[in-house]
Amino acid sequence: MLASGFSISLLLSCFGALLVTTFAIEEFEEIEDSVANTVLIRGSDTSVRVQADSGKISVVHFEQEGNNNTQEDFGDDNTEVLSFQVESLQERSSSGAAIGVTGPSQLRHFVGSFKSHVFNLSSLDNSSTFQGIPVKNVNLKTFLSDPQAHLELMVWVFLGAGIIRFGNETFAVQNGTMKFNIKISDWPFCGTGNVSCLSQTNQREIGQFLDLALSIRSQVEEPEEVNETQRLQSNKAPICVDHGDPNEQGEDCPIIYNMGGNSEMLLNRGVMTNSGDYVALPPGFPKFETTGMRSKRLIFRIPRFNNTVIIDPSVNVGDPKNTVKIDPSVDVGGPRSASTPTTDQESGARHNNAASSLQFFSFALLLSVFIVHY
Asked: Domain check: are 270 and 360 in the same one?
């Protein structure tokens, strides 16, 4: 009788452990899809949230302890979050005047806001590469009914360090760097082909530029440009690749801005067209405009293009509490050091392995109880 009672108690304990394990796994999976129309991407120490309802991209430093993943705080009250959202598109003349806004019946050549715009959100690709470097990727697409063009956002989180190229610019990315391409297709510039635009005074308008405004929220009110010397003094990994000619290095490297909280943004000096041409932005662009304490607007003035054009910002999110010291003698494209945080694929694999082991143990113990009891 005692043995039978002990067996039943042991049986109930095993069943309880099995339930706890199952619920723990389900809770972990639920965190990944807790917000509708949203994809969460985790890198080694970077978490990125992509929202389909507005095309908003939010990124924050991710603290991971052992095998325990915690839900990140992307709230507006968290000053450590960086957020990016396409704010508007406006076609302009050679003098910079807004065109395609008024006049006789015609397609509008501007989009005033994307806040209520819905994007088609792809599923998360956990095993992609970008110029040979492993990445996680998700894409957003939307159609602009007026002026009948397409806008696409392609978001990558790097799972390793290496060197990449964008047009004439070559630079290093780190494990955790977030890059998002902004691609505009089929924009009908005024004065091209059969596209005719008239002002209120019936003057013919010719489009030479397209201004893309990117709304940004970060810790600093006014981002400051920094150079490699300043970065290296702060023990940060190099970004600009030395081509052997220090006079040309600045021309071949993106502009680097301190965004506060030990984070930085890399802005290319030009854009890429569908024909593979690298076209420099006009002098003074890209340009920051302060709109609030933490809010700012980044303007890209894109020269007129055929078919498609791509803008290529990148973001390095640092730990706001401290700066990681990096040995400058180590090649940024080399193997990851033992102190480098693991990716969430690695930690997720360990989490799943541990959970599977516990499940196997529970089943084995449960089976042994049945064998002994009967």
From this structure: no
Query: Which of 44, 177, 40 lies closest to 121 in space, CA to CA?
Result: 40
Spell out the alpha helix ranges (H) of 113-236. Answer: 228-233
What single-letter DSSP state applies at residue 197? Answer: -
Q: Output phi, psi for 319, to 5 deg.
A: -70, 120
Domain count, the chain: 2
Write down the pTM of the prediction. Answer: 0.75
Does some domain include residue 227? yes
| Structure token digits, residue 138 | 């998700």
**Cα–Cα distance, 320 to 311 (Å, whole number):** 27
Q: What number of residues does the chain have?
A: 374
Give the residue among 236, 231, 264, 232 at the shortest CA–CA distance from 61.
264
75 and 141 assigned to the same domain: yes
The DSSP element (H or E) to which 178 belongs, if any, is strand 178-185
- φ and ψ at residue 152, rounded to 5 degrees: -135, 140
Residues 326-346: pLDDT tens digits? 333 333 333 323 223 333 333
Question: pLDDT, tens digit, for every residue of 83-142?
Answer: 999 999 999 999 999 998 875 556 788 998 888 788 999 999 999 999 999 999 999 999
